Amino acid sequence: MVTATKVNAERVYYNFDGKLPPVPMEKEPVLPPPVDEGPKLITDTTLRDGAQDTRIALFPHEARIKYFDLLHRLDNGTGTIYAVEAFIYQKRDAWTIEQLLDRGYEYPKVTTWTRATPKDIKQLVDLSQGRIKETGMLASASDHHIFDKLGHRSKEEAIEKYLQPVETALENDITPRIHLEDCTRADIYGWVIPFMQRALDLSKGRAKFRICDTIGWGIPDPYAALPWGIPRLFTVIKEETGAELEFHGHNDFGLATANSIMAWRYGGTKVNVAFGGLGERTGNTSLEQMIAALIRYRGDPGLDLTALEQMKRLIMKEVTDLPDRAPIIGEVFTTSAGIHQAGVAAQADAPGGLIYLPFEASLFGRDTVELSRVGSLSGAEGLVSLLNRAMEERGSEQRFSGTSRVIKKIYDRIQDEYDGTYDEATNSYSNYRRDFYTQEQIVQMAEELGGIE
After folding, report:
1. Per-residue pLDDT tens for 36-53?
2. Is 275 left (phi over 0), alpha (psi -120 to 50) or beta?
3. Residue 278 CB-half CA count within 13 A
4. If you ran DSSP here, which 8-state letter would residue 223 be given?
5. pLDDT, tens only, 84-136
6. CATH of domain 41-318
């Protein structure tokens, strides 16, 4: 039996004068529920929070629809990509929602985001004509937001304001998904839990909740105290309310993916993501990273992983650049260090499988890639890889090996270029090369040295 808790009238602030927030720790960790506990699903906010990325002036209208189509392809009928959310306010938003609904996809479901006002819910009802069955609604949770941002006179007043759109949604048969903004700075026992209990009571258990780590303060450590510790936060809220919980993480400390995984492990049903980690400041939890985490923890439910490469191309072409070192979707299948190149060269015939790659590039729809780049730390294996690829492209049967004399000559010439010119008088080097060699340059060098038949 869940005991109703009272609202703490006192304000609770976490003010560290702009310095890095410390991590308060408890003496004992919280333990996760059994590993087979419940479904683990993904919701997508690329078209909403992802579009708020400061590199993006506008997420093009048509690109939104193409992205939704690819998200549907990624889900591949599994229901794993449970929903996508969009705004409702501008003409382009209304057009987008109409297009998404007209697709008729079962998954991802089309949901929306609204402010905590009955007016917004009524606008949604007029827009969707009963076709949207769930909406997110903002409910700023921390005292930083309740008082300093929104200017509420009390925590009780905030609850009353937030419950009004919940009631309006229920009257129109729309499931309220309440977004507890800035929950990792909130008064958990003194406001979050009492508010959730009242919302659950009002909705007869229908309300869902999104736990938002709005400024990325969350910590994945099971020893971390409330409200920072994501394992403890989900454990406490789940025990006190029994509600369906979703996590929305930001990556300010590089912990969005780790926190999202912990939210799953400690009782959360869903995690909210954006492709490529798009979003404000350092962005949201990355869709592709959570896809990989889901498969590693639970197995592949049947997703079409090749859609991720198409998503990347769409975003890069129509929306914004993405980091080329991004996990899963970045240019991460290339090596320049000699010892790594040796491992890559050996792994094709290795009985143990891959040596210096975490997975095959083709797994996520990547085309064949050149695994070796020739730079200052490259070894003979990288040269062999580039030259043999060039020979294949020419239709030549000639092949090089690490013992080829021309490889040694090319290697020495390259290292001389990277060393540069030594000036004994000043004990310094100058005129040294600073960029990579291209395949064409390596081939030309081999021709000049008489190494190509």
Report:
1. 778 999 999 999 999 999
2. beta
3. 26
4. T
5. 999 999 999 999 999 999 999 999 999 999 999 999 999 999 999 999 999 99
6. 3.20.20.70
3-class DSSP state for residue 53?
coil
- Higher local confidence (pLDDT), 69 or 450: 69
- How far is Cα 287 from Cα 84, in angstroms, rounded to an integer? 12
Residue 229 to residue 235: CA distance in whole angstroms: 10
Distance separating alpha carbons of residues 21 and 360, to the nearest angstrom:
39
Nearest to 184 by CA among 208, 222, 154, 218: 218
- What the block records as the tokens of 343 is 């491992």
Rounded CA-CA distance 140/290 in Å is 26
Q: Tokens in use for 185?
A: 């700075």
Domain boundaries, the chain: 41-318, 338-448
Cα–Cα distance between 38 and 310 in angstroms, integer? 31
The percent of residues in the chain predicted with pLDDT above 90, rounded, is: 80
Please tell me whether residue 175 adopts helix, strand or coil conformation: strand
Beta bridge partners of 248: 212, 272
